Amino acid sequence: MAYRKTPAELERLEAARERLVDQATQVVAEVGWANASVTAVAAAAGIAAGSVYQHFPSKAALAVEVFRRASGREAEVLSEVLHGDGDPVERLTDGVRVFARRALERPGLAYALLAAPAEPALGAERLEFRRRYHELFAEVVREGTAAGLLPPQDARVTAAALTGAVGEVLVDPLGTPAGGSDGAVADLLAELTAMTLRCTGAQHPTTPGV
Prior knowledge:
By secondary structure, this protein is mainly alpha-helical. It has 9 helices and no strands. The chain has helices at about 5-35, 40-45, 50, 60-80, 90-105, 105-115, 120-145, 155-175, 180-200.
């Protein structure tokens, strides 16, 4: 009869796997994908390098899990904002500000998700990451158009342009996080808000709230 792990053993394995993913996320945020070796991650988690392979078949598989977890959390936060209070234009600008502010608070991780050189296995994950943002933004753009707050437009094109523009604007400050002042961060968020309004053609006098 094949050996079956007890519930206690399965629980310990799951806890160890979660800790491994958490520590891998921290390592990636600090040194990027290229330098987040299995040895470095294992050391951060306090385990032998070989133990990593009890949970993931390869470094690439671990990297994919880290990416999915981290990007999934950001998408959930954005979704909550975009489906929150306020009219569609207010929610759209709030969503851009929240996404940018969270990225600037954890620049290493945000840069890893958006632009840092990575293994080919993460290419598909980045595309999916962007698609999720396209869908979320497009939904709110459609609401704004239906409400007369935005001019008629192809919501998918606008959402793709907005996602790409926000990411591109953030790449430089995230890639060289010298520690901007509060004023510099506020100015950047205000510029992103203004860009969002221009990109969507909004006539709504939204006041940036940072």
